[in-house]
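Example record

One chain of 198 residues, shown exactly as stored in the release files.
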Amino acid sequence: MRYSSTLVLGAMLAAGVVFARPQPAVDEQPDVGAEVEVSRTAAQQFGGALKEALQQAIKTGGPANGVAICHDQAGKIAADLGAKLDMIVGRTSLKIRNPGNAPDNWELAVLKQFEARKAQGEPAGKLEFFAVIEDDQGQKTFRYMKAIPTASLCLACHGDKLDPEVDAKLKTLYPNDTARGFKEGDLRGAFTIAKPLP
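Predicted structure tokens for this chain:
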């Protein structure tokens, strides 16, 4: 999805203004309380399902097996959850592994905002942002992002010292991988959710 307008988000981010939630536009924004709650739950469910699949894969075949499972199952987990909730569910990051997870312009701005907020002392696990944006055709979409902090489990595949077997598997499955060099507590990326509004 690509959007030309993010209400006031783009201008405020460009000006260096950091805030937890979007400011109201000139016209009233719709009430999106229900969408926020569903999105928080979706992010939690997606993260939980992915973590469970990775832990099981690592337990049975080591970290390299976790890379393969993430490659093969993460997209399906997101798609199935999105279909169930009638939302688009995914992950993105400033340092991507899967090119299909590259951030769009809105997501990129929010990820940079998250980094700025973390630098000012906010815990990565508490960072979230949502807004209602409008595309060129006037379609309004609710968008939500929830930061993913780097946990110890992530370091086997996303840290700066990788096992040679993991490194080889990553080079095979993700030849343009940039999602390395993270330390525990770093901002790994974010869950991203979108839902068109009536």
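Notes: The chain has five helices and four strands.
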